[in-house]
Give the backbone structure.
Amino acid sequence: MKNSLPLIAFVLLVILLGVGLTLDPREVPSPFIGKPAPTFDLPKLYASTDSISVAEMKGKVWLLNVWASWCGACRAEHQVINRLVKNHQIEIIGLNYKDNADQAKQWLQELGNPYASIAVDHDGRTGIDWGVYGVPETFVVDKKGIIRYKNIGPVYQQDVDNTLLPLINQLQQESS
Amino acid sequence: MIAEIGHAALIIAFTLAVIQALVPLVGAQVGKVRWINLATPVARGQLLFIAIAYACLTYSFLINDFSVRYVATTSNTALPLLYKISGVWGAHEGSLLLWALLLSSWTVVVSIFSKGIPKIMLARVLSVMGMVSVGFISFMLFTSNPFVRLFPAPVDGRSLNPLLQDPGLAIHPPMLYMGYVGFSVAFAFSIAAMIDGKLDAAWARWVRPWTNIAWVFMTLGIALGSWWAYYELGWGGWWFWDPVENASLMPWLVGTALIHSLAVTEKRAAFKSWSVLLAIFAFSLSLLGTFLVRSGVLTSVHAFATDPARGVFILVFLIIVVGGSLVLYAWRAPALRSVGQFSIVSRETGLLVNNVILATMAGTVLLGTLYPLVLDAMGVGKISVGPPYFNQVMLWLAIPLYLMMGIGFFLRWKKDTVSRLSRKIVIPFAVSLVIAVLLPLLFAPEQHGLTFIGSILASWVALTALLWLLNSTTSPFKLPASTWGAVIAHLGMAVTVTGITLTSVYSHEKDVSLAPGESYEISDYQFKFIGVTEVGRDNYIAYQGIVEASEAGKHLVVLHPEKRTYSQSSMPMTEAAIDAGLFRDLFVALGEPLGGGSWSLRIYHKPFVRWIWMGALIMSFGGLLAAMDSRYRRSRKVKLEGANNEK
Amino acid sequence: MMTKWIGIALLMLSVQLHAAIEMYQFEQPEHEQLYKKMIDELRCLVCQNQNLSASNAGLAQDLRQQTYEMVSKGQSQQQIVDYMTQRYGDFVLYRPPVKLSTVLLWFGPIIMLLMGLIVLMMSLKKRKQAMDEALSEEQQLRMKQLLDKGEK
């Protein structure tokens, strides 16, 4: 029996490594799932004297999409975001992360602006508060202001179909 | 054309490896002499064709054949010659070819230096090594072919990562691979012994030199990696407990236990199943390392490839090789039971305790490396396990290890008593304690608990090693090479732990901004910033800083830290300037221009950091001495003489 | 799967392959010590195989700035750790916190060592016992032989 111990340990190791092959060690899950969204009160991109805050969004189901004009993947996902807003009337607040205002506006002009409002996070502090570590990232916030889901990386159409839309529909049913 | 020849050679090598893996093994089982004798020539054939394949790949690099995808992603016309040659192993596919080349080379060398080994055992050994070759070559042929073409061929290649454009690249990987591959020899011998169903002192005598040499290469490879990271990465660190670093440390720890276990198996016919198990583990950990670096299961700055598909292939390979050997062990271990008897207080027990500590250290490194994966796999969340964990935990394990290293020398074989042992130890321990306390008090700029810990471990091991030389009844110069080897290796450990302790406790580092003409002082060393000029070389341009370093006012050296921008990448890279010394390193790295001619600089004073690698060199020399003990060559001479006499 | 990280990869391309050198002034040496300790023990989330001290990713610079500000305000190590883990989870700590899920990690080594030594001692004792029993069997046999001889 004791001579089989190394073999048994090895089998366990192989199972672990096999499972490991299906995981992504680089992905950092958000500690905010199920917790209240961090507050912010930031100037708007198109009306810099106006501000947009998280508190304003209470009672609504909304998405926070973190993007920047220097980010290539944001470009790739933008059509999906556009479609999401056009077809389903989802309210999405853009968080313009560590960007240049002119370049951001140009980028939106070129690719389309689906956002209800765009908050400008010039130095990335708000990003840090939300646990942003890469661009793009998208958060789903419910009516009570609780973050329910974080999409790390670009939003693909299958993410929309399989995860985001069902979740948003479910959250719309919930009371505020 | 050449690439296709290389590819074809690889296929032929694969076929030969398959023959080498199966035919002699079956021949040994059924007693077919012809098949048994096939092992050596087939192994040589395999080496020939792997060498041809390797030469073809190197040639493609040298003639800048960017229609070969691997050359296009790894090389560049402007790349200096040294890096075209060593860049062959700079990325995933080529490094596998290097593995295969070194493995088949070791196989042939084993077949040459094996005069005293029975043909059946040799056949099994070469077959097992052939199986490993089959694994690596098929890995290349099916998932990682270095000879894949790229159409249309780019005008120029992407070039080697600037971090790798360094002489360190030319030596660190080959040394390390020689170690990884070398442990396959002990592994193959263990499999052969298990198939045979018996294992004796002669077996240990055959295996020991191969294992010692593999251990030497492993030690050098790890030390080179540490040294290279130190001067190349620019932040003064020499070990980061990165998963790939850990992947090399684990086989080294187990390999160290193995060389001690083999000593006992040879001398006392004991520890047989320990030796076999440790040999399996050492090589398994080598293979595990290969898996970790190439499968994407763990993030690592070293990762060659992060391809789960390749990961599956290696995992299957691991299952076959390691699983197969452990199944064999579970079945055959009873046959390997040692009959040697020894009492509870004895050198045998001391060495067993040593094995337990080393195995625990290897297990701890494995635990820390894989723990984030365990929690993630269980869905508990993501954590990180880094230097703060490893440094703390390994320190606690190193203390009993070093203590045992000293005690071991005093223990008698087979039977000793606690009272006798204590009598022998008391004075040396007291002396080393006094030395350990005095030296820091006299010479250290400030006292620190860690300093004393390091100092007692170092002085205890150094003193006991020297005593071993002087205490025996024979003159030290008549002692065998293996004794000298052990003594020197232990001294090397003392030197390394001294370096680690002193550099960890007493290093100073400071980020400063200096205008031309301004100075900064650290630990009695003054650094005067003169200015920055621009220089250009083969494939990079650089800002070169000029810093005058002096000690207590006396001029020492002018340092030239550089910030390089390579033509093939937009990423600037720091090349730190180091004034290396036996007792301290001065290290300056160039930061950013701050306007008005001022620049930010990072200045380090690192005392005794070279001792870390010097200790490793000393250890390796000790291992080499032990491997060259005339005992291992005596049997051949006797056999030859016997053969001559028969004529 | 790989394409998911284009954004992050792009962020990384702006990373410079050298340690960051920033001029931070500290009012007290303890502040500087705490700062250095924190950036050594915090993991960069972009260049995930470097600590904040070595990484020059944009996020690492931002987090170093954040750490500097917290240290200068007199915040304790625990407060800084809490700030970071609230936002990024335990992943950001190179020193894994001691909790139920990491008990095996932190105590594993000592458990392995003790178990190894205990198993070793037990198997040595068993072996000694077997040896003694065998010996006493042998002695009994010899005694019998001697007695048989004596009786003749």
User: Anything to note?
Assistant: The longest helix of chain C spans residues 103-151. Helices of chain C lie at 6-13, 29-41, 58-72, 77-88, 103-151. Residues 2-97 of chain C form a domain with the Helicase, Ruva Protein; domain 3 fold (CATH 1.10.8.640).
